[in-house]
Structures
1.
Amino acid sequence: MAKIVGALTSSHIPSIGNAISSGKQNDAYWKAFFAGYVPVVEWLDAEKPDVAIVVYNDHGLNFFLNNLPTFAVGAAQEYMTKDEGWGLPLFPPYKGYPEFSWHLIESLVEQEFDIAMCQELVVDHAFINPMRLFWPGQNPPPIRTIPVSVNTVQYPLPRPSRCYALGKAIGAAVASWPGDEKVVIIGTGGMSHQLDGERAGFINRKFDELCLEALVSEPEILARYSILELVREAGAQGAEIIMWLIARGALTGKVSKIHSSYHVPISNTAAGVLALANQ
Ligand code: DHB
Ligand code: FE
């Protein structure tokens, strides 16, 4: 039986990719941000998970307004990287795990999540940047991946309660996979930010701190918010925190915090990372 060893959640801000590529990790602007990832990288080095389920939101690269699934699961041999306009470099494709993907898809549909299934999928900064932060210098990282894409581009967005339930269903699917792989679930996006409109630049430290605490021991608090309430509290793009809720929902054991870090701002965003162990 496969086991989820932990959940890692992280911001995915495009400029992180450019900072890594130009070696700015020790610049004054970036130093504290990158320092926040060191304990997570060390945990991954020690734990060495075999499979990463990466829950992220596509930003109009693979899916566009004319064809936009609420939830989509990748089932490809590999996932090509592309850039939807941030000037980010391209990398060799991420390694897939089609057999495990199909098990996940079958289990999710059986659990009444009518997800889209993708035998072709290109991944954007929301997938790539957290992977570069968690496995620095390793492109691709030494892990097989299963992308799960969530619509945060076009309304209606899935309710936080639905996202939390999806996470639980992913947890159940992993537990019923006969292989003995170690699985890490990654959720990307957030924390509070709003990129456009009257509140452009909006950041809410109080709400972000609530998220960082609630996700450890009482995720139901966040699952009770509506999307509109999340947008009010976290900003229009801060609603990306639903990816963190999905990742947390997949942890079914005794959950403990390995590490968290919070840094304001990176670009227009409150940048956060949280690592949880699942025993
Ligand atoms: C920024 C943050 C995001 O989550 C994103 O997808 C694009 C840009 C930013 O803060 O610049
Ligand atoms: Fe984003």
2.
Amino acid sequence: MKIFITRKIPQPGLDLLKKECTIDLNPHDRVLTKDEIIKGIKGKDGLLCLLTDQIDKDVINAEPNLKMIASYAVGYDNIDIVTATNRGIPVSNTPDVLTETTAELAWTLLFSIARNIVEGDAFVREGKFKGWAPMLMLGQDVSHKTLGVVGAGRIGTAFALKSKGFEMNVLYSDERRNERIERDLGARQVALSTLLKDSDFVSLHIPLMSATHHLIDEKELRMMKKTAILINTARGPIIRETALIKALKEHWIFGAGLDVYEKEPEVSEELKSLKNVVLQPHTGSGTFETRTKMALMAAENMLIGLKGGIPPNCVNREVFLKKPTT
Ligand code: GLV
Ligand code: GLV
């Protein structure tokens, strides 16, 4: 079995694959171009890719014998699932193992902006700290405030549950009810507009799809409190970035914490010039432990898929229902 891997992932995942497969690994420490990926998958049975790779129709159709796509990420908006499914190719992702880690980053961003951590750090380093002062860098309290969780899936749930120690009032918006956070936190399911109006902190935990593209636009930002903080550890295009920049500049909200960007890896100069936003380079799942678990999970899914089994984290299970029964 031959596999193409678009970028080096933690060694335990590579070792697991090497036991049963021949691997062809991107030798560079950079994202490959579409042409390089197309060349890479020629003659391969499996593709192990990242969220930074656009796995579109041309890529998927470049190798007629491609049998499995294992993505090293939970979000799979970068993969043309319809084409993969039509071709009968299972696609797997890496859910669960990164849930707590990503929820922790959302909290890190929330506190960083609520208490001006990044600005404060720079202030001290620049020698501007001349002593305690009554009005120096005042932030926002977190305890007993209202937390708004947009999308109460795995990560949204973990994020919400971590608010327990801060005794917050929790609101969530989702198509489905989440009995766990209702029971454990007294969380209330509300419409997005109510959540935006009533929350002190709004954190996005929804996948990117056509229905969530620019879900947070000028109208939504204007609904938020002047003291509110917006956190995005999901996908950049869920927020219309130009609207967010306007909101931050004109202080419609207190601040934002971002791990993802609309035109990633490009980050607008305007965003970088603002003090009321904390910017992180898409490291939601970025811990030693979690990245190793993701590598093993992607490798396990790959091996099962290549042998014709149902990968445990398959996102297009229709592939297995559709198999002709002649
Ligand atoms: C990270 O953004 C992921 O989807 O795993
Ligand atoms: C993603 O893994 C989610 O369900 O939140």
